[in-house]
Amino acid sequence: MIAAIRLRSAEALTLHLTLTLEGTQHVIALRRSPRAKRMTLRLRNASRDFVLTVPQTVTSAMARDFLERQRGWMIERLRRLPARVMLTPDAIIPLRGVAHRVVHRPEGLRDVTIEAARHGEGPTMNLCVSGPLAQVPRALLAYFKREAQRDLAAAVRFHAGKIGKTVKRVTIRDTTSRWGSCSSTGNLNFSWRLVLAPAYVLDYLAAHEVAHLLHMDHSPRFWKLANQLSGDVARAEAWLKAQGARLHQIG
Hints:
By secondary structure, this protein is α/β, with parallel strands linked by helices. The chain folds into 2 domains: 6-80, no CATH class; 92-247, 2-Layer Sandwich (Zincin-like). 34% of the residues lie in helices and 27% in strands. The protein has 6 helices and 12 strands. Strands 1-2-3-5-4 form a 5-stranded mixed β-sheet. Strands 6-7-9-8 form a 4-stranded mixed β-sheet. A hairpin with a 6-residue loop joins strand 1 and strand 2 (14-21). The longest helix has 27 residues, at 136-162.
């Protein structure tokens, strides 16, 4: 059963519905848009929630009826999402596109090191985390962010140098709607999860945002420059389309 709509605030444009699917309650954001011609429903892979966009003339009853008719589609889309991978011992996590197994080493101070796996099946590389067991997720996350900062800062400097630009700041975040962004002041922001992807994907995203330093759009001029900076535009875009959702399920 769908619960009643509730407002976030008196002037809120986004309402929320709740819908139970296979025993789990899901919150659906309901957005009214003056540009919408029909009702559209989409699943945000990273946050694993739905957004229903409707024309302004659609009533709440019509929105509820639409969602009821989409139950089968919603359940199928949720089932197709990659399983979550927690930052815990024995988890298999990619680093620069190579699968690593998380190994906990309780002795020593909190630290993360990489070593070759000595035996057994599965990944040939280990991510060894020392320190208390409870600190393993935090230690891994900090490690991934440091590695992402290092890799992306180097890639940004390289590509910015090609066009005679200096980037003021490279910031690492945990974004869900985009892999990177470029501010009007020349600061670049990236998702730490890019360090999990193959190196050519991270390098392409760095080139993509550097290209925005000259073209703050996705015009033909922008794509021409992006292709000049990176020779992997098509390959990286294809990888992100096929595998990007999996990165958002890690951690």
